[in-house]
Design goal:
Helix content is 36%, strand content 20%. By secondary structure, the chain is of the alpha/beta class. The chain has two domains: 61 residues; 203 residues, Rossmann fold (3-Layer(aba) Sandwich), CATH 3.40.50.150. Strand 3, helix 7 and strand 4 form a beta-alpha-beta unit. Helix 6 runs parallel beside helix 7. The mean pLDDT is 94.
């Protein structure tokens, strides 16, 4: 980059980045490169950057142009009411997953004794959002990846949350004999041969957190199959899934004994979260 002021560097980056998100991404990357806030950059648009600052920024922009997600480049992603640390070992939290949190909180009592389970926690986004809003709840967050759990634990420490316990294992493996009032999960749900897995940001995210079997429903089936054995009476199961999978997930829940089954659409009117209540486990 030959543009040496803050605003010139931003404009040059925007010209190279995707049109819709280009300005926002350029600002995030420059703020990270300079270790400055967006407000500082607005107030110092004409300030000249040092050669090493420009070099650092150019390298970040080049990596983004190649498709590397901004969240991995800066190591952070906003979710719910806070910023979370993310790494290539974790799925990048997405805005649509906040719908799952909202629906869970609607069913999460404020009384003490509430037990919540997040299966496949990744960066901890869902578990930590619920623990943040329901400080009296006992939240268990599980993941098969020790690397992902290290990130989730670091996020919990940064948020000062002491009501979350992390366990390593494959779905129900580390939960023998335990029951919960609320079970939530954003499991992998993309078909393993889906070409989208090899495009855009998805190329950089952990495959096992994205894809699950020929129809994308292997993980969902594993979760639903044993959920009744881990649900307290009147306990809820909430699952995020692909926008074409609502009917299949509803059928799975009903077949497994869940009642009050329904699917909720996201802001783009796509079927996104299916939930059901276990009346008599």
């Amino acid at each position: 980059m030959k543009n040496d002021t803050v605003e010139q560097a931003l404009r040059a980056a925007v010209a190279r980045l995707p049109e819709i998100e280009g300005r926002r991404e350029a600002e995030l990357l420059l703020a990270y490169a300079l270790q400055k806030s967006k407000a500082w950059m607005i107030a110092h648009g004409n300030e000249r950057l040092e050669p090493d600052q420009l070099s650092r920024y150019e390298a970040l922009v080049a990596r983004r142009v190649q498709g590397e997600p901004v969240a991995y480049l800066i190591g952070r992603r906003g979710f719910w009411a806070f910023d979370l640390m993310v790494t290539p070992d974790t799925l990048i939290p997405r805005p649509e997953t906040e719908l799952l949190v909202e629906l869970a909180l609607e069913r999460a009592s404020t009384a003490s004794g509430l037990r919540v389970l997040d299966l496949g926690t990744g960066s901890g986004a869902i578990a930590l959002a619920i623990a943040y809003e329901r400080r009296q709840a006992e939240v268990i967050a599980c993941d098969i990846s020790s690397e992902a759990l290290a990130v989730a634990r670091a996020n919990a420490r940064a948020l000062g949350l002491s009501n979350v316990e992390f366990r390593q294992g494959d779905w129900w493996g580390p939960l023998a004999g335990e029951r919960f009032d609320l079970i939530v999960s954003n499991p992998p749900y993309i078909a393993e041969d889906d070409p989208h897995l090899y495009r855009g940001d998805l190329r950089y995210e952990p495959l096992r957190a994205l894809a699950s079997g020929r129809d994308g429903l292997d993980a969902v089936c594993s979760i639903v199959r044993d959920a009744c054995r881990h649900s307290r009476p009147q306990g809820w199961l909430l699952l995020e899934h692909g926008w074409t999978q609502g009917e299949m997930v509803r059928d799975l829940l009903r077949t497994s004994g869940f009642a009050c089954v329904r699917t909720v659409r996201d802001l783009e009117a796509r079927e996104r979260v299916t939930l059901g209540c276990m009346l008599e486990p």
